[in-house]
Design a protein that fits this description.
326 residues, alpha/beta, Rossmann fold, 5-stranded parallel sheet, 33% helix, binds (2R)-2,3-dihydroxypropanoic acid
Length: 326
């Protein structure tokens, strides 16, 4: 029996490669530059499975170019790059990597929160510049974190992991989510549910943890920023298009907000030039980027592929409807 053919758009990590290589013939894209769309369509054409990143679009055109494809395994928890209904129509399983990156992403949301509150970017620049003339009383004074109000938009696994960390700072935690959390969870995390507008109005730090969906695209724009405190900081580790960046730039310029720390951007990898200002902290989509977590994510994607190709249900299947047709 011929071994199934897999395209992986990155070399992955050794442990993930071992999982795939044990039962599949894998074409790893290992050039330093990303795979182009043309090359992706060309290479996927005869493959049974695709292991892809959030930078690759799995849409109807790709699926049409890959008639043998049975699974698209995203190495990410977010899957806005995958047209899941199109996959389902073509009986292609779609999978993601939930759970393994929650704590690492929450760590990073806190990294950003602390960096923007305490002006670490500006401080580091000054320390490295050779221009520092010594301690001064009013030099780079930021905002306290402890005792403040942390607002969370989205209270799933990652939002809750962010909330858990707030107790060490004796913060008040409020959240909004389309689905209110069970009372036991609210109690454990000392988190209080609020209406969307109240979270905006009451937060000193507002951290965003919603998936990118039609209803969350542009969730935060001029109208929402106008409800926030001028002393508030915005932190985003979810997806860039959840925020209207032009409106954010205006809010930062006009001091309607104190600062923003963004791991994600509306048009990655482009950074809105208006965001290159002192009261922002910017990172290139790094929230899950610890070696341990990225390795786990790649292994999960590999396991999803191997499960499907060996006739089992992939552990992280997004469209279970396809199983009937396999
Ligand atoms: C995801 O998994 O969706 C992140 O954005 C990258 O880890």
């Amino acid at each position: 029996m011929p071994r199934p053919k897999v395209l992986a758009t990155r070399p992955l990590f050794e442990s993930a490669r071992q999982i795939l290589n044990a039962s599949c013939d894998v074409d790893y894209w290992s050039a330093p530059e990303r795979i182009s769309r043309e090359e992706l369509l060309r290479r996927v054409a005869d493959k049974d499975a695709l292991v892809c990143l959030l930078t690759e679009r799995v849409d109807d055109a790709l699926l049409a170019a890959a008639p043998a494809l049975r699974i698209a395994a995203n190495v990410a928890v977010g899957f806005d790059n995958i047209d899941v209904p199109a996959c389902t129509r073509r009986s292609v399983a779609a999978t993601n990597t939930p759970g393994v990156l929650d704590e690492t992403t929450a760590d990073f949301a806190w990294t950003l929160l602390m960096a923007v509150a305490r002006r670490i970017g500006e401080g580091e620049q000054l320390a490295r510049s050779g221009q520092w003339t010594g301690w001064d009383l009013d030099q780079l004074c930021g905002a306290d974190i402890h005792g403040k109000t942390l607002g969370l938009l989205g209270f799933g696994r990652i939002g809750r992991a962010v909330a858990r960390r707030a107790s060490g700072f004796r913060m008040k935690v409020i959240y909004h989510d389309a689905l209110r959390a069970p009372e036991a969870v609210e109690h454990e995390l000392h988190a209080e549910f609020r209406e969307f507008r109240s979270v905006l109005a009451q937060s000193d730090f507002l951290s965003v943890h919603v998936p990118l969906l039609p209803e969350t695209r542009g969730l935060l724009g001029a109208a929402q920023f106008s409800l926030m405190k001028p002393s508030a900081f915005l932190i985003n580790t979810s997806r860039g298009p959840v925020i209207d960046e032009s409106a954010l730039v205006h809010a930062l310029e006009s001091r309607q907000l104190a600062g923003a720390a963004l791991d994600v951007n509306e048009k990655e990898p482009q950074i809105h030039p208006g965001l290159l200002r002192p009261n922002t902290v910017l990172a290139p989509h790094l929230a899950s980027a610890s070696l341990e977590t990225r390795t786990k994510m790649a292994c999960m994607a590999a396991e999803n592929v191997v499960a499907l190709l060996s006739g089992k249900r992939p552990p992280n299947l997004l469209n279970p409807e396809v199983l009937q047709s396999h």
